[in-house]
Design brief:
CATH class of the largest domain: Alpha Beta
Radius of gyration: 18 Å
CATH architecture of the largest domain: 2-Layer Sandwich
Strand content: 5-15%
Largest sheet: 3 strands, antiparallel
Number of domains: 2
Structural class: alpha+beta
């Protein structure tokens, strides 16, 4: 099923803070596809404030393309399984390495705190979880993350995880 995420909910998400607001995007809708109960892909469509929010006709279009998108995702998964295993192995190496913070710090020129936060992001923690775990304010975490992004020349969490774990 497709549904439109209400704007009041969207602006509360880290995704909105990390990506959308910075790029001037305001309205969004997602299409998720599953195979045997497993999410195999999603499509995200965004509009800026000058456009209208999505409506039911937009959802109908997503429903029409959904079977084709699902088949496309199933086919593409066949070709990337080997690469995914290699990336996963690299991620496990970083995440299990007790010196991971030091390696990330020295490799990428980060401070110890920035490296620690980068590793926590690689573990899948949210900004709020990281702030609570290390005892600092949420806004401090956001500042550190912005510094990490700038130093690594990246713009989002996915790029961060790929860079330090691949």
């Amino acid at each position: 099923m497709c549904e439109i995420l209400p704007q009041r909910e969207l602006v509360k998400t880290e995704f909105y803070s990390d990506f959308l607001a910075r790029d001037g995007l305001y309205y969004g809708m997602n299409l998720y596809v599953h195979d045997s109960g497993v999410n195999i892909g999603d499509m995200r469509i965004w509009r800026n404030r000058r456009r209208e929010n999505f409506d039911d006709s937009d959802l109908e279009v997503l429903e029409m393309i959904k079977p084709h998108f699902r088949n496309s995702m199933k086919n593409s998964l066949r070709f990337c399984r080997v690469e995914d295993r290699n990336v996963a192995a690299g991620r496990e190496l970083i995440l299990s390495d007790r010196l991971g913070v030091e390696r990330i710090r020295s490799t990428y020129g980060l401070t110890a705190r920035e490296a620690q936060i980068a590793l926590e992001i690689a573990h899948g923690k949210t900004d709020h979880e990281i702030a609570e775990a290390i005892g600092v304010a949420f806004s401090t975490i956001r500042t550190h993350i912005n510094h990490v992004y700038a130093k690594l020349g990246i713009r989002n969490r996915a790029a961060l995880v790929h860079k330090i774990c691949a």
